[in-house]
């Protein structure tokens, strides 16, 4: 199961922590893991290239955490909220494989 935890600072969304493998299908065919990975990578790239924000990224086997390195902007807030909606949607569609922690 993949656990997705929003990271907040001063009650504002600044990133996400994703931990664990979805295990929907075997390696290379796991569409749930692929969807989560794609959304995460796209959000990080968009924060850097569209919002021009530095993003701290920590990753390992079945783990990724990313958070803004600097103060948020309107653009970065929109991108992070968009990612939040995407993660929630995936968790609702695949509740046996993804858990979104609402904090």
List keywords for this structure.
alpha+beta; 5 strands; 103 residues; five-stranded mixed beta sheet
Please render the helix and strand layout as text.
Elements (H helix, E strand, L loop, with lengths): L1 E8 L2 E8 L11 H19 L5 E6 L2 E6 L5 H20 L4 E3 L3
Parallel strand pairs: 1-5
Antiparallel strand pairs: 1-2, 2-4, 3-4
Helix pairs in contact: 1-2
**Helix percentage range:** 25-40%
Oligomer: single chain
- Number of E strands: 5
Distance between the termini: 19 Å
Percent strand equals 25-35%
Radius of gyration: 13 Å
Mean pLDDT: 95
Largest sheet: 5 strands, mixed
Helix count, DSSP H or I runs of 4 or more residues: 2
Structural class: alpha+beta
Q: What is the succession of H and E elements?
A: EEHEEHE
Strand order, sheet with most strands:
3-4-2-1-5
Q: Segments where pLDDT lies below 50 for 5+ residues?
A: none
How would you summarize this macromolecular structure in one to three sentences?
This protein has 103 residues and is α+β, with helices and mostly antiparallel strands. The chain is built from two helices and five strands, in the order E-E-H-E-E-H-E.
What does this structure look like?
The protein is an alpha+beta fold and 103 residues long. The chain contains 2 helices and 5 strands, in the order ββαββαβ. It has helices spanning 31-49, 74-93; strands at residues 2-9, 12-19, 55-60, 63-68, 98-100. A 5-stranded mixed beta sheet has the order 3-4-2-1-5, covered by helices on one side. Helix 1 packs antiparallel against helix 2. The radius of gyration is 13 Å and the shape is globular. The mean pLDDT is 95.
